[in-house]
# Entry
Amino acid sequence: MSILVVGSVAFDAVKTPFGEVTKAIGGSATYFSLSASNFADVRLVAAIGNDFGAKEMAVFDGRAIDTAGMVRMDGETFFWRGEYGYDLNDAKTLETRLNVFEKFRPVVPPSYLDSKVVFLGNIDPELQGEVLSQVKSPELVAADTMNFWIQGKKPELIETLRRVDLLLINESEARMLSGEHNLVMAARNIRALGPKTLVIKRGEYGVLAFTERSSFAAPAYPLESVFDPTGAGDSFAGGLVGYLASCVVRDDSALRRGIILGQVMASFNVEDFSVRRLRSVTTPEIRARFEAFRQLVHFEDLEPASAKTPFPKL
Ligand code: AMP
# Structure
């Protein structure tokens, strides 16, 4: 099943303790699409400037990514400059230039209107709402956002959230959006705004998911070398939403497998700067890491058949 995604396509300048890039391809929709296209067909809606040429567009080539909904506008492409310290969990935004996104009014191409799965990537919540309103009858609407929009456009964001089924959000942003420090309370408040399913991303500490029926926790995949966490959230979303789009039954069990695939995709993404690793990762690599993840979190009952004696004092 195809996924319609709207979000930023960007140039990023990123500095981490392990290196830096000054004008690398980034953007929420870029990371999402590259990740999700491993699992489902992606239909991309975004604006780019004159500076995003054929060389940059090639990042979408040879994959299940339809770029008919990308518009080239007069001006410069969205630009984000950020920095990370040794604590790679939270990006420090140094500069955000919306550029062409300031005047962008998204028109969803007719060939996208029947999309059943929609991902509203991190971008102005008004644009998210405009795109969603054009899709005929979506079955699953997932969304992401960040502090920039929670602070700058909260009423518009709340309006969009009313129509969202699955929200993915960072820990600090969950606190900011809900005004609650405790994450379980924050989750309750945010779910009351609309999204029945909430996934809170906690960087290297993993994710917490809350649904109507259950809660689920997953660690991040432990890696020896992490170079650049930029795009981890969107790669995670690509794995999760991409997998759900490919599922006939989207129950809590599918959500759990999707969350692990999200963690798998995020773990590949952070292994190199910009979109380099997402471009090179293969299906056998994704399968192998999913299996390694299953081993990582596997444990038996308190009293498995193999245990010789019952667990003491229980
Ligand atoms: P994340 O997956 O959260 O690390 O997202 C990283 C991407 O988000 C970067 O490639 C940026 O270009 C993009 N980005 C940063 N700030 C914004 C913003 N305010 N709106 C849309 N995209 C953004």
User: Anything to note?
Assistant: The first strand starts at residue 3 and ends at 6. Residues 3-298 form a domain with the UDP-N-acetylmuramoyl-L-alanine:D-glutamate ligase fold (CATH 3.40.1190.20).
